[in-house]
Amino acid sequence: MGEEDFSKGHCLLFVSVSMQEIYGYDLCRWKLVLVTVGVICSGGFLLLLLYWMPQWRVKATCKRTTLRDCEVVLLRTTDEFKIWFCAKVRIMPSLGANPLQNPNPIVHKVSNGHAVHFCESAAEENKNDLKKYLPVSKPIRYFTHHSVKYFWNDSVQNFDVVRGLDESTFCSSIHNEHSTGLTKGMHDYRKAFYGVNEIAVKVPSIFKLLIKEVLNPFYIFQLFSVILWITDEYHYYALAIVIMSVISIVSSLYTIRKQYVMLHDMVAAHSIVRVSVCRGNQEIEEILSTDLVPGDIMLIPSNGTIMPCDAVLLSGTCIVNESMLTGESVPVTKINLPNPSEYPKAMGDEIYSPEVHKRHTLFCGTNVIQTRFYTGELVKALVVRTGFSTAKGQLVRSILYPKPTDFKLYRDAYLFLLSLVVVAGIGFLYTVVNSILNEVPAHTIIIESLDIITITVPPALPAAMTAGIVYAQRRLKKIGIFCISPQRINICGQLNLVCFDKTGTLTEDGLDLWGIQRVENARFLLPEERACSENLLKSEFVACMATCHSLTKIEGVLSGDPLDLKMFEAIGWILEEPTEEETALHNRIMPTVVRPSKQLFPESKQATNQEMELFELSTSYEIGIVRQFPFSSVLQRMCVIARVLGEKRMDAYMKGAPEVIASLCKQETVPVDFECVLEEYTKQGFRVIALAHRKLESKLTWHKVQTINRDAIESNMDFMGLIIMQNKLKQETPAVLEDLHKANIRTVMVTGDNMLTAISVARDCGMILPQDKVIIAEALPPKDGQAARINWHYADTLAKCTSSSPAINSEDIPVKLVHESLEDLQMTKYHFAMNGKSFAVILEHFQDLVPKLVLHGTVFARMAPDQKTQLVEALQNVDYYVGMCGDGANDCGALKRAHGGISLSELEASVASPFTSRTPSISCVPKLIREGRAALITSFCVFKFMALYSIIQYISVTLLYSILSNLGDFQFLFIDLAIILVVVFTMSLNPAWKELVARRPPSGLISGPLLCSVLSQIIICLAFQTFGFFWVKQQSWYEPWTTESDACNVLDATNTSSAHHGNETLHDEHYIKNYENTTLFFISSFQYLIVAIVFSKGKPFRQPCYKNWAEFITLNLILIIVVLNAIVSVLTEEAVDRCGVCFLSSLFGCREKTPKAKYMHLAQELLVDPEWPPKPRTTTEAKVPSQENGSYQIITVT
């Protein structure tokens, strides 16, 4: 970048693997004064706004300047997210600008062993402290971003990361210049730059987390709403929202702090240990691991340790468990870095790189199980990286500062909220105008107009959206899938392509020896099932199987690569390693010895003592492994030099990929039908390994062997034959892939195995159908002036193809099917396959072909870990939603980069993957996609429901505002708590549909069907509320509302008048007691329930609504209450009619009472009257009434 750009204070900064724009600023005092005044005038709102927007904060308080002189830097990512960060530039006194160079002012002090102190904390960085360094030091400017320090670099006129010894350091320099250790003064000088060797995951205090959470825009909006509601005297509703918010904040704080604590505990375990280092004067000093800096020589203890840094091994060997980084639990043997200057003819000098020289590098966080040293020499390692620069530190940084999740749903959600804000603005203006026209007081206008905004944008929306994801996370946990990134669950609902690792994922983890096929006189013999037969005991073929491996013993147990282990166990030999005492007394060529067990020798029947002695001598057949050239994924082979006990000449044994081994052998020893035989095995899915042997010259002594170049040994070999290993498919693999294919989810194999083997496995598991053609793309890099090119071959005719002639005739190219939609494009009848080398060439030289190849690429073989990540990115670039399923070994990068990474490993490497399955089976993939689809549909349902809830309430309140009325406190409370809250948290409970379907859920809210759905429901709700609002006014009993009327107590005019004057406390202050309010409240309450039923969709992504008992009961609660009420009333009445009186009489012990009615009293008297009723044939005569009482006397005559 030119000087003009630098003068503007703008440049590009490389941050880890990404790039950011950087701008320089200086603090401006007059701007700061203006901002302070603005904060005071706005009641602190401006301060919140500047807190949320760092770029505004810096631009509002600072002025642009050059990067060289700036006090504050503003950073912006160059990706699609364009995220802003700011950091304060600090000053540190230093005696030099480069920590890897000796600063001149302290040369004599260092030689005298005096320590020089450098302050590092910001508190010490003031002018007084700088003065005492002025004669010899100069200020170094730096800032910290995402746990990494960036120092000013005058040579590039930009801030830059201080590099360790992992870049631009030659291997010879590591041995010649850095192998003596640092003096105390140089150590302190470097520590000022590199800081404390610690991967610090600070667990924030509860108070800090609380402040950060409360200052979230969502909670600030809730606080504003609560204050407004309290001002409007909606106390109960405001209290309910406060309680809900507190519960939400506490839950969020607990979850966030728990994640911090888990990560802190994982990182802090064994991170601080005591280590021994070599100083420049050959002294050994014991220090804390936090004091290590690049350049220190660390002594690796014999009983092992947890590595606190990245270091390159200078002497000795180590057995290391790297499962924390790679997910691979198999111990790895690390050997010391060869010194090119000692053997200039044997090997050339090269720049050291931890990735290239990982066979010699001990990575931070890995467990050194045991060490081996020779002739009393200590096992030493040079520290090359510390802190967050280490491999483990970079992994932790990727977890602490993850790349934002880009998903259309979340982008559309913000647009939808923006549209609600626009609707709220319209309501705000309507309320203000209507209130002014009706001469409403000013404070009422302010409250009601702001209230309409809180109604339109629901404060509970984020919590409602999270509910579905939380429920999905719980369901995943029940089926053994653990999630550390819940937001990815929704994205998994959109997956339409899944990449699978082969070994341990699609196939069984272990390999079984199917058989061997030896070669004699350049001809293949018949395949043999066993390699431990008597006639093969001392053959070179078995000797190669016994020696050519990287096995070692850990606490007496043989361990190492599973393939090596299976191969060694197949021959039944014994491995013996030298003990510590032996290695301490002998030189470094003290060999590891292998020998056959005695059971393999034929037993001597009735042998004499003399014959037994001869037998013992004959069984002492041992082979010593003199030197090992470890397996290299780049070379695809390994080699050892061994010597049979008693033999003068040594042997070289080699094994590896058949094509590579055959190319390094004498052509006259390779069978003519080698390619055909190899193809037959690989087409059947076998993993084939070739063996070769060479008798070394007698002039090669033990010492010369230790310095000889690998290429000098690995040539002119004799081809010995093939080892055929069987890697069986997992039982569930074909069924799972078939389910994915039925759901139109494309499957891709990404493996480090042989291509033909991978194609065979792809056919066996159904990834490639039998009738489909496979086209292999063999890309060749530019060479000898020729441009890069791609040769195309059919997989079935690969062995017959040559690079000079075209392999495919245009007439043979499969015809594509005619498709009705783009979704069916993946069902074409051809597939591409390629290896890692071809993929790298295509990425570099054929960028325009990459989208076309990945569109139909199904098998990617011999892929390195970084190439797997590149493939995932290439697939994402053509808008695939990519899932990645692997066992954690070498898949970390791809698992992190994919939209949905699923690790089948329970090891710590699974922290790099969003999802981890406890069962090592790909059956978790369709389960995860089903739950993702259910969660995604739930998010749509909840969002649509919350939007309709806001609009329905908005319509109700707007209509009531037209008559200067509103909903009451308890009405709001009932709607939000009894209806909305319960419905939202129950409608998210629908479990996933039982099977995957070909149809995928929509990815965003801004789509035709979804918008049509929401708008149509809005129109329906608006129509019915408006109809009810005006219809009630047409009724004969309707009275226009006034401030004195009360629709809840309709009395006659006089009673109303007297009641009003007699009880002034019942005055309707909020104007809610009217017919319109009651009508709209009832209509809207049912509309909430109706909309919830309409939006609670089931099949094909979720279980139907009636299977969600919580939601079913909630939505039908009113109907259930009515039905239950009716049933209880009828049954009670029947019971009372039948036995109620008797029951009550017996219950209260009631006595018989004199009847109150006259006819009943008369009836009782007649019952005891013997002359009543009159007897037949009798006559009753009347008598003259007496004077006394005027009554008549009745006489009966018979």
Automatic annotation (TrEMBL):
Residue span, P5B-type ATPase N-terminal domain: 21-153
GO cellular component: early endosome membrane; late endosome membrane; recycling endosome membrane
Positions of the Cation-transporting P-type ATPase N-terminal domain: 170-229
Membrane-spanning parts: 32-53, 214-230, 236-256, 413-432, 452-472, 936-964, 970-989, 1010-1032, 1078-1096, 1108-1131
Annotated P-type ATPase A domain residues: 274-399
Chief location category: membrane
Highest rank taxon of the organism: Eukaryota
InterPro entries reported for this sequence: ATPase_P-typ_cation-transptr_N, ATPase_P-typ_cyto_dom_N, ATPase_P-typ_P_site, ATPase_P-typ_TM_dom_sf, ATPase_P-typ_transduc_dom_A_sf, ATPase_P-type_domA, HAD-like_sf, HAD_sf
Cellular compartment(s): Early endosome membrane; Late endosome membrane; Recycling endosome membrane
GO molecular function: ABC-type putrescine transporter activity; ATP binding; ATP hydrolysis activity; ATPase-coupled monoatomic cation transmembrane transporter activity; metal ion binding; P-type ion transporter activity
Function noted in UniProt: ATP-driven pump involved in endocytosis-dependent polyamine transport. Uses ATP as an energy source to transfer polyamine precursor putrescine from the endosomal compartment to the cytosol.
Protein name: Polyamine-transporting ATPase 13A3
Organism: Bubo bubo (Eurasian eagle-owl)
